[in-house]
Amino acid sequence: MNDFLLDTDIIINHLKDRSKKGFSLENLFAQGNLFVSTLTAAEVWRGIPQEKRDKTEEALTRIENIPVTTGLARSSGVLSFTYAKRGITITTIDAIIATTALEKNLILVSHDKIYTRIGGLKHYSP
């Protein structure tokens, strides 16, 4: 059984029926537990029009929310700083999401290629 941390793009694509052929959140639910960062939830709500809000609420209530703690904020800042010294820019939100996956031992599901550059991060791009 695997546990997955969903990035914003995966949820938005699901809600707008734009997921790639053969991929669905239901398939991931069958393989393990699904999680989102509170930041991901905020980004999802920002990108959803009024007519999709009921579907959004339904989807997000099925996925466990991981809050951003002071410890996660500290670790993500260190991660971002470390990669910046190597010439790799990671946005604050992406750093927090990556750190959440690393610290909680979750597979990060995203199409964002920045995550492939973070050592030790388990990443799945459907």
TrEMBL record:
> Boundaries of each PIN domain copy?
2-117
Write out the entry's keywords from A to Z.
Hydrolase, Magnesium, Metal-binding, Nuclease, Toxin-antitoxin system
Please name the Pfam families in this protein's record: PIN
Q: Which GO terms describe its molecular function?
A: hydrolase activity; metal ion binding; nuclease activity
Q: Which InterPro entries match?
A: PIN-like_dom_sf, PIN_dom, Type_II_TA_system_RNase
Answer yes or no on keyword Cell membrane. no
Q: Which Gene3D superfamilies match?
A: 5'-nuclease (3.40.50.1010)
What cofactor does its activity depend on?
Answer: Mg(2+)
**Into which family does the record put it?**
Belongs to the PINc/VapC protein family.
Name this protein carries in UniProt: PIN domain-containing protein
- The record lists the organism as Candidatus Chisholmbacteria bacterium RIFCSPHIGHO2_01_FULL_49_18
